[in-house]
């Protein structure tokens, strides 16, 4: 490979993560990149690509039809590692805002972001990023099958679909999340994210199988859904411990807040396959 070709034809990217949920950030301010599912999947491949749980494309809100009516300068175009589109990504929006701040595209401490699920507003609080994720919607009880075993869980929408299943600490540690879950296709025509949680003294411990990705180290919207279920009997704050670290979910009379670390740790250029 002629490295000059990468410098000349490659597109700029940054890499970041929020509690181990990792993303490739692609600044495409004027919305000139039209990435196919296969291209996204190739970039996110952990052996033959850069590797990530998803891609965050940074687009001027004025250039994105999905951002219409949202009072934000930037639109987050989120794609899962398999190329599929999701309505919302809680860790993604925190990493997206960290990128905007680090790149000088936003000043903070408050940064509104247009998303497919509507406006989300982030705040820098200490070293963390806290996002108003809007209230969780609890939609009842559903069945999910994972690794040949059927569970009953709570259907929660955070803009994207989740099923939260409570298990014991021992069951949580022993779960095999390497395969795909199955659910009622009439309820989840576009599939769902599945969170398994076990109670802790201050909240829950969580493992997640993400739609369009597989098991990840963390899922922000999953933590919101899990925290909302953990706090179902009232308002307050719950810690959500994930393999990649700790997130905090606070529910008040109006909304649900998601807080935690988000960092950008690399930048470069990549050839779009
Ligand atoms: N990791 C994300 C969720 C990303 C989208 C999800 N896989 C879906 O398809 O709904 C988060 O931090 O919320």
UniProtKB/TrEMBL annotation:
GO BP term (any one): lysine biosynthetic process via diaminopimelate
Subcellular location: Cytoplasm
Superkingdom: Bacteria
Binding site for substrate: 21, 80, 90-91, 160, 193, 210-211, 220-221
Keyword set, alphabetical order: Amino-acid biosynthesis, Cytoplasm, Isomerase, Lysine biosynthesis
Residues under site feature: Could be important to modulate the pK values of the two catalytic cysteine residues: 162, 210
Pathway info: Amino-acid biosynthesis; L-lysine biosynthesis via DAP pathway; DL-2,6-diaminopimelate from LL-2,6-diaminopimelate: step 1/1
Single GO term (MF): diaminopimelate epimerase activity
One cellular-component annotation, GO: cytosol
Enzyme category, top tier: isomerase
Active site: 89, 219
Alphabetized SUPFAM superfamilies for the sequence: Diaminopimelate epimerase-like (SSF54506)
First-listed, main subcellular location of the protein, grouped into a coarse class: cytoplasm
EC number of the protein: 5.1.1.7
Subunit organization: Homodimer.
Record function comment: Catalyzes the stereoinversion of LL-2,6-diaminopimelate (L,L-DAP) to meso-diaminopimelate (meso-DAP), a precursor of L-lysine and an essential component of the bacterial peptidoglycan.
Family stated for the protein in its record: Belongs to the diaminopimelate epimerase family.
Protein name: Diaminopimelate epimerase
Organism in which the protein naturally occurs: Actinorhabdospora filicis
Lineage of the organism: Bacteria, Bacillati, Actinomycetota, Actinomycetes, Micromonosporales
């Amino acid at each position: 490979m002629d490295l000059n070709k990468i410098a000349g034809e490659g597109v700029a990217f940054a890499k970041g993560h929020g509690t181990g949920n990792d993303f490739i950030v692609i600044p495409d301010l004027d919305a000139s990149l039209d990435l196919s599912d296969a291209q996204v999947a190739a970039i996110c491949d952990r052996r033959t690509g850069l590797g990530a749980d998803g891609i965050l494309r940074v687009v001027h809100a004025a250039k994105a039809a999905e951002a219409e009516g949202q009072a934000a300068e930037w639109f987050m175009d989120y794609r899962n590692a398999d190329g599929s589109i999701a309505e919302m990504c809680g860790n993604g929006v925190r990493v997206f805002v960290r990128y905007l701040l680090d790149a000088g595209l936003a000043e903070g401490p408050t940064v509104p972001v247009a998303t497919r699920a509507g406006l989300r507003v982030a705040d820098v609080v200490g070293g963390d990023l806290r996002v108003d994720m809007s209230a969780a919607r609890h939609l009842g009880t559903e069945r999910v099958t994972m690794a040949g075993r059927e569970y009953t869980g709570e259907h929660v929408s955070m803009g994207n679909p989740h099923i939260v299943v409570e298990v014991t600490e021992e069951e949580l540690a022993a779960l095999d999340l390497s395969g795909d879950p199955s659910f009622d296709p009439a309820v989840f025509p576009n599939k769902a994210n599945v969170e398994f949680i076990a109670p802790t003294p201050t909240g829950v411990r969580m493992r997640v199988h993400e739609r369009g990705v597989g098991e990840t180290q963390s899922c922000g919207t999953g933590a919101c859904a899990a925290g909302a279920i953990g706090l179902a009997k009232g308002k307050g704050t719950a810690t959500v411990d994930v393999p990649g670290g700790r997130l905090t979910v606070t529910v008040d009379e109006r909304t649900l807040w998601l807080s935690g670390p988000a960092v950008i740790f690399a930048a470069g250029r990549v050839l779009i396959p």
